Amino acid sequence: MPARLLRIAFWAALLFALVMALLPKPPQIPGSPSDKLQHIAAFAVLSALAAAAYRSTPLLRLGILLSLFGAAIELLQLIPPLHRDGNLLDWLADSASITAVLALAALARKQGWTARF
Prior knowledge:
The chain has helices at residues 3-22, 35-53, 59-76, 88-110. Helix 1 runs antiparallel to helix 2 (35-53) and helix 2 (35-53) packs parallel to helix 4. The protein is an all-alpha fold. The protein has one domain (3-21, 36-110).
């Protein structure tokens, strides 16, 4: 897949994650997965898209930026009119997911599978 399409997909997913995180009453997901599972899934997708879309960017930089994005969401959720709750454990789940996916991307890059990561 061309890098341009992957970048569009990454930014669309990032915007979607931000909007869903800041909606006062986000829609219910079928099966009602736990909040932590939703965080893990969202940041796994964002990490995989970032690694694929920005192949020349060091993975550590991507990881730091994605983790800061997760922290920013949790801080924004502390704004009272949003009726959301910022949570340190949510940010830790985000960061753990980012770390796991980018570790796999690092392995893929090391093995020469750079066409995808």
